[in-house]
Amino acid sequence: MDNKKRVTVPVPIDHKKRLTELLVDYLVIVVYLLLLLLANLAFSFLILDGIPAYTELQAQLIATLTSVIPIILLFSYLDYYKKGSIGKRVAGLKVTFIKEKFSASLLRNAIKFLPWQLGHIGVIHGMYSEFDMTAIIITNAGSLLGLVLLLMGLFRKDKRHLGDLLAGTKVELI
Predict the structure, then answer these.
(1) pLDDT digits over 54-84, tens only?
(2) Taking each helix axis from N to C terminus, what angle separates 133-155 and 114-129, rounded to the nearest 10 degrees?
(3) How far apart are alpha carbons 112 and 97 in whole angstroms?
(4) What is the four-CA torsion angle of 160, 162, 164, 166, rounded to 10 degrees?
(5) Dihedral angle at the C-alpha atoms of 168, 77, 145, 174, nearest 10 degrees?
(6) Separate counts of helices (H) and strands (E) for the chain
(7) Which end of the chain is more exposed for a tag (fewer CB within 10 A), N or C?
């Protein structure tokens, strides 16, 4: 009997699958945001009689609590319980965990969507400050981080981005 462990070499994921995943997930997010916009407009004009003026803090909280956090929670749920977002499943990919914990999925997705949140913070702050240096730095930091995550996901051999490395996850072929 052979007692040697078998080592399986993961099959590389091609760029087309990763881009398909990104496009489908992007469309899922856009649909959610359009539904959120319609609900907000209906609430504002049917109940509040117009769009109210918000303070910067109120605008930051609304953006975070209605868009970023629900998307992080949705993608974390899908990655953990369904082994991948809708885009991953359409592209024939799945998320695997070194340690099966929902907190790993939350960490992975919080980092994945951090550039989006930084963009919100920077643009909202800019709207209230005439785009001072703080707004520009925060917005550009979000863009730079988003680019780094995208390039890592596309060009690293194992296709892991910073969220995967910190959460102990990876994306593989189904």
Answers:
(1) 999 999 999 999 999 999 999 999 999 999 9
(2) 160
(3) 16
(4) 140
(5) 60
(6) 8, 2
(7) N
Measured CA to CA, the distance from residue 128 to residue 140 in angstroms comes to: 17
Amino acid sitting at position 84: G
Q: Which residues have a Cβ under 8 Å from the Cβ of 160 and sit 6 or more positions away?
A: 152, 153, 169, 170, 171
CB under 8 Å to 102, separation ≥6 — which residues?
76, 80
2: pLDDT strictly greater than 60: no
pLDDT at 24: 97
Residue 8 to residue 144: CA distance in whole angstroms: 35
